[in-house]
Amino acid sequence: MNFEIDAFGTLVIAVIFLYVGRFLVNRINFFKNYNLPEPVIGGLVAAITAFVLYKFFNISATFNAQIQSILMLMFFTSVGLGADFSKLKEGGKALFVFLFCVTAFVLVQNAVGMSLATVLGLDPLVGLIVGSITLTGGHGTAGAWGEVLEVQHGIQGAIVLGMASATFGLIIGGVVGGPVAKFLIKRHRLSDQVIEDKNDTQLDTNTRSATFEYPKKTRLITANNAVSTLGMFALCIFIANLMTDFSQGKWFELPTFVWALGTGVILRNILEHVFKVNIFDRAIDVFGNASLSLYLSMALLSLQLWLLADLAGPLITILLVQALVLIGFTAFVTFKIMGKNYDAAVLAAGHCGFGMGATPTAIANIQAVTNTYGPSHKAFLIIPLCGAFFIDIINAIVIQMTIAFFG
């Protein structure tokens, strides 16, 4: 028996499980000590509940996809609207160094997936599916490339396999980021460094923070601020939908969320630097953080864990190895290259999020870590920009070249 849940019902259930996650993280020391994000825990409880209902009572639910899509677009729009050119400049060299780490890992991820697929007697392109297509790319990339691999390269079941792999990745990406950061912080005694930094530099209430930084900080906004900001969100999403339709089938075709993010960047900087309009970052932060929490809870709420049962033994083996490679790479490569300091540990947690999950998972990871140990302004500058924009471009280029070579 399947129940159709409308937009309001979907939102209510997502909020309930978001608060369930918050309750569990506050009450269970293991979740709190290992910095597991509240939306991830709540969403996992929802996904497990759905799995039990489906397996033992044959009850399933279809949640409204439109509201989840809107929240996703609002999240990426907030990333764009928060990215003024001064912040890009502030990211500086560290942004490009982190991009190098991300690019290297995409190549490693595909090498591991395709090598293991070949050893296990599978088509190498199957290894690409359980590589950067799904683990770095997520569900959207899995659906898009799965269709290409099925139609043009004869990989049967590529879409189902991709969705199941992306589901696995989203769960693992949200679970391992916090423990990796905790391991690095304790091993290198970085918490002492954070305390010293806090004592040396107190947070100025007038200091501009990066988008998604200090998610639990009270932010004063007015109705006028909220209306103006919602208008900017709506304009960005409207243009993104137009560009998605216009670019369909053309060489510059991009997913809607990329158009939304790019439009946000352009709109923000034109208004601020050309027309000298005062942009209300506090309102952008509030709407961005709310969209992030609700979207992530809703995404996990909609996961069908029984899809993982469709993965054969060899594919599960590849995914488990990919998880171990991610942990090792972020703990010993990303952390080292980014400076072996507290910021580097937080960036490693974020890399876990979109290295085997999605950008919202990455941001939830770094929020969970900084809520426990202290702020990391550099991480909140770099992770949203890299995870939401650059990584998709890099991944698309790598996938295209790999398929062209092996296809």
From TrEMBL:
Transmembrane segments: 6-25, 37-57, 63-83, 95-122, 155-181, 226-244, 256-275, 287-309, 315-335, 347-368, 380-406
Cellular localization per UniProt: Cell inner membrane
Bilayer topology annotation: Multi-pass membrane protein
Keyword Transport: yes
Keywords (A to Z) from UniProt: Amino-acid transport, Cell inner membrane, Cell membrane, Ion transport, Membrane, Sodium, Sodium transport, Symport, Transmembrane, Transmembrane helix, Transport
An annotated Gene Ontology molecular function: glutamate:sodium symporter activity
Primary localisation category: membrane
GO CC annotation, single: plasma membrane
UniProt-listed GO biological process terms: L-glutamate transmembrane transport
Pfam families: Glt_symporter (PF03616)
Function: Catalyzes the sodium-dependent transport of glutamate.
Protein family per UniProt: Belongs to the glutamate:Na(+) symporter (ESS) (TC 2.A.27) family.
Protein name: Sodium/glutamate symporter
Gene: gltS
